[in-house]
Design goal:
Helix content is 25%, strand content 31%. β1 and β2 form a beta hairpin. The chain has eight helices and 14 strands. It has two domains: 166 residues, 3-Layer(aba) Sandwich (Cytidine Deaminase, domain 2); 76 residues, Roll (Ubiquitin-like (UB roll)). α6 packs parallel to α7 and α7 runs parallel beside α8. The chain has 268 residues and is an alpha/beta fold.
Length: 268
């Protein structure tokens, strides 16, 4: 899908950009007591039947006999019927499976954003030059990545560009959780007026974690997905991607950024 975005590289350029689609796929297990959410996978729509079969295999839940059927009214819901419903219900983790993290979330499509708290507005406009420099700043505090090239990084930064904390992990969602946990231990949640920078792409789970921590801006080195953009827009989060070499793309919240030279037909 294509969305209107702004790109910063010393000046602003407005245009349309392609964004990968990310949507939740819920698998509901039918039991004598009614349907039970067996899992929610964040995915790009397509080949859903194969995706669900593969997930059942990898989770050790594949029954000897089953019927998988798409919901006729909701393309993001599938139904599973099997004589082994009791075993599957007992073994299910009943949580959200992500395209990046395996399991990180709450259990059904309806509860994905149950704990979300809209962040407070920024007290002053964000300097785009500060955001453009964040990937470089993050790299300076990633010793494990420098040594191995095999981990992601996440950091909290003030609007003035001061680094508060940085963490690394093989999972980008884990790196963010470590940063949020650091803030929780210090009793400083919600993290209003601060920016989260991640070395990865910005999928739904990254923006979800930012929103639940009250973080008002997310900057990623990689792209953002469609659901990440939708979630950021719904909760007033500034979402920037492709941050590298002094440039970045603004998907949502451009009005919170200080403007420089505008190139194009539409002002920020």
């Amino acid at each position: 899908m294509r969305l209107p975005v702004w790109r910063y590289g010393g000046g602003w350029h407005g245009h349309d950009d392609a964004v990968a689609i990310e949507e939740p796929l819920e698998l509901r297990l039918h039991t004598p007591d009614g349907p039970l959410p067996l899992g929610v996978l964040m995915r790009t729509p397509g080949d859903d039947h194969d995706l669900l079969l593969g997930w059942l295999v990898s989770e050790g839940l594949m029954p000897q006999a089953l019927t998988l059927a798409a919901d006729p009214e909701n393309a993001n819901v599938w139904h599973l019927s099997t004589p082994e419903h009791a075993r599957l219900a007992a073994g299910a983790r009943l949580s959200v499976s992500s395209s990046a993290c395996g399991v990180c979330g709450s259990g059904s499509v309806e509860r994905l954003l149950a704990r979300a708290i809209p962040p407070e507005p920024f007290p002053v406009p964000i300097d785009p030059a500060v955001l453009a420099d964040l990937p470089r700043r993050l790299m300076t505090v990633q010793p494990t990545f420098a040594a191995t090239g095999g981990v992601h990084g996440a950091a909290l930064v003030t609007l003035a560009g001061d680094l508060l904390v940085a963490r690394e992990d093989v999972g980008r969602h884990n790196a963010v959780d470590k940063v949020v946990g650091w803030a929780h231990r210090r009793g400083v949640l919600p993290l209003s007026g601060q920016v989260l920078v991640v070395s990865s792409r910005a999928g739904f789970e990254i923006v979800q974690k930012a929103v639940t921590a009250g973080i008002g801006a997310v900057v990623s080195v990689g792209a953002a997905t469609s659901l990440a953009v939708d979630t950021a827009a719904a909760f007033g989060v500034v979402l920037c991607g492709f941050a590298r070499d002094g440039r970045f793309t603004v998907y949502t919240g451009a009005g919170s950024l200080a403007t420089l030279a505008i190139v194009g037909d539409h002002p920020l």
